Amino acid sequence: MTIDKQLPSTRTTELDSICLKAEVIPVLAIRRVEDAVPLAKALVEGGLSVLEVTLRTDCALEATQRIKEALPQASVGIGTVLTPAQYRQAEQVGADFVVTPGTTEALYRHGVSSPVPMLPGVATVSELMIGWQFGYRRFKFFPAEASGGVKALKAFAGPIPEARFCPTGGITLDNADDYLALKNVMCVGGSWLTPTPLVEAEDWNSIRELAREAAQRFHH
Ligand code: 3PG
Prior knowledge:
This protein is an alpha/beta fold and 220 residues long. It is 41% helix and 15% strand.
């Protein structure tokens, strides 16, 4: 497929500059809003300054607001966005970007006129082709390991070499390298940097170390 210059802007450049800031994006599910700032601070201090706060918990929006206020240097996205209504909520709290696990036409339509860029989730070539038609060039590949992993992404590069991905779902320190070695992978995301027991124990030092380990190992 060729790039159609007439397509609406889907803020590929903005997404690229966000993803260039870190090869690893921690995926956060914040259960206690009080954890938001110390958790984010530990990750940013460890060297990971792009975060995805998922809408899987009730306090996600407030958590995002608090992180944005306390850590203006961080890029904070809102993930697990399933509907345009949730996309609008993300816009209202000042999210830097939006991530979706899968996509719908309604999300694509909202995304092309939103001031906040979206990283739409796809798992198959057909889904990728739909996003492509809407002008999207950057995608989340989810659930990465369950959907064919590195082999699937290599195969996507055949018909659509210009598309770039942030794979998530089953990524860990052990397999991140294999993804990051691919030309069409910009960064990876995962929840392994915020293990629930460490967050519950408020063990921010250990989380800072996990972030540091990932940041050093996967430095651009
Ligand atoms: C996501 O929403 O990106 C995933 O839940 C992260 O997947 P993981 O928990 O397997 O890292």
